[in-house]
Amino acid sequence: MKEVFTRSKALTEAPFHYCPGCTHGIIHRLVAEKIEEMDLLGKAIGVTPVGCAGFCQQYFNIDMQGAAHGRAPAVATGIKRALPDKFVFTYQGDGDLASIGIAEIMHAAARGENITAIFVNNAIYGMTGGQMAPTTLPGQKTSTSPFGREASLAGFPLDMPRIMAQIEGAAYVASVSVDSPKNVIQAKRAIGQAFECQLAGRGFSFVSILSTCPTNWGLSPVKSLEWLREKMMQQFALGILKDVSAK
Amino acid sequence: MAPGSSTINRKRVVALKKYLLKGNEAIAEAAIKAGCRLFFGYPITPSTEIIEYMAKHLPAVDGSFVQAESEVSAINMCYGAAGAGVRVMTASSSPGMSLMQEGLSYIAANELPVVLVNIVRAGPGLGGLGPSQADYFQATKGGGHGDYRLIVLAPNSVQELVDLTRDAFDLADMHRNPVLLIADGILGQMMEPVVFKELEAPSLPDKTWATTGAEGRPRNIITSYALQNEIGEANCLRWEAKYKNIAATEQRWEQYMIDDADYVVVAYGTTARIAKAAVQQARQEGIKVGLLRPVTLWPFPVKAFAALGGKVKGYLTVELSAGQMIEDVRLAINCAVPVHLCNRQGGMVPSPEEVLARFKEVFPNSVEGGV
Ligand SMILES: Cc1ncc(C[n+]2csc(CCOP(=O)(O)OP(=O)(O)O)c2C)c(N)n1
Ligand code: SF4
């Protein structure tokens, strides 16, 4: 019988703990498939965030270090400076990367640190039970914006890929989504291009991926995908925002 | 050689040329000679010469220097680099050390060998640039969250800055534990002649746990995340056993004129130099007083106090704080005899005369014919 689907060698056999309909799992798979396809299993070192993906060292079948909340880009910098020939990436949520870790990610990019950041934006703090994130949409209800995010009190969402694209040291910046088969393919391509960027020594690479949090959005998995398309994509436009190799 | 013990036992092979070096530069050069190849730091007076020296000299040995965006980031870079198995150091001064406490807790939890330097300045808050020992509690009692210990080394001369920097790297690798070298602006800025002794390297365990890419071996994971309480407790028990072993094997101190002493002055670092001069003056006046200088602040050299037995009638600690080490002295002797404090704060330093006057004030019976 022809095998049409199999687990990537870059994933362990541990079952994901993510909620039903959460797209962290799809994103793990895409990252793992690229690690395997690009023959990086033996040379990859991943850095985990604090957040729902804080246990991803159980899933990625490679060497991993767990960072404090938001510090993954600094940890990755230390690893890459120690082992410049190895492949180093971070996997971070929006609270981790865009709030508590905003300095670490911006300066890793500013230094042109030759690492890759995978940024999972679900517009909310998943792990701690659905509080407002820096990426929470205007009007979006969360447990700490119970009346909806109001600009006069809580400001506006940060569009991280657009911010990162402004930084000279960032060599590759993409904004993608995993809400449809077409977008999943595009997301995987972007992850591959970001990895390629690091392997070619071109500098910092950043892939922002719009993701769902059905549990804390209070929506079914299907409705969550609709909400992502209708609301999040309006705020965070998709596209390859920067690719120095394309010049 | 100071008494006490260490698992780092060295045979001197040959003494090299003398250099006249500033304390901070001596630390940096000693680190490079000890094989430190990565340095992450953020400028702060009075420790900045260390990061400047590293920026200038690491490239020549194929090392890497990063001026981090903050001390928060610098310590996390150290965490990554140490996890990758390379000798790494950072240096800062009190306000910067406060920012490093989060990362230090993770480094301690993951048992990673990182060497840190704190050139302590007066606090709390932004404070002043003058010498201080007010970070003693932070250094020896944990500092960050959770139950952990740093090995804390307290040199009192530029030569000792060099020797203990070297030892710091070996101790860190030996015990898989962060090591903190603590000094102040006087030691950091002072110029003294030093030699870089050529020493046999101790045999150290291989870093089989490092995250270097899993090629040809099972993968390595470095994480302190333990949501299951049973796993959490097992981790804590492992750390506790390690700290007990370090406490039993790594206490170091120096003693001076202590054999016949009725009274003992206890001081480390800069104040130990001042206290030594005060002890010399007291001896000229016929007062039987000696000096005990802790070289390791953690583990605190309780063995030195135990060895003095019941002979000593009282202790005086000399500290640049409101009295921090004094608590460890009282614990070390079980409050058996009076322990008094001679201190200056906020960047001020006592003179030997002040120390002697304070000594006579609290121990009037120590003086011939005193009441
Ligand atoms: C220093 C610190 N502050 C707060 C927390 C609590 N905390 C854990 S996860 C998290 C938010 C994670 O949200 P996000 O990065 O968006 O990831 P998600 O869980 O949504 O994937 C917070 C605030 C922590 N672990 N450490
Ligand atoms: S809480 Fe949200 S982000 Fe976390 S696993 Fe569940 S759905 Fe995913």
UniProtKB/TrEMBL annotation, chain A:
InterPro entries listed in its UniProt record: 2-oxoacid:Fd_oxidoreductase (IPR051457), THDP-binding (IPR029061), TPP_enzyme_TPP-bd (IPR011766)
GO molecular function: oxidoreductase activity, acting on the aldehyde or oxo group of donors, iron-sulfur protein as acceptor; thiamine pyrophosphate binding
Domain Thiamine pyrophosphate enzyme TPP-binding span(s) in chain numbering: 57-207
Keyword terms of this UniProt record: Oxidoreductase
Superkingdom, natural source: Bacteria
GO BP terms in the entry: cellular respiration
Official protein name in the record: Thiamine pyrophosphate-dependent enzyme
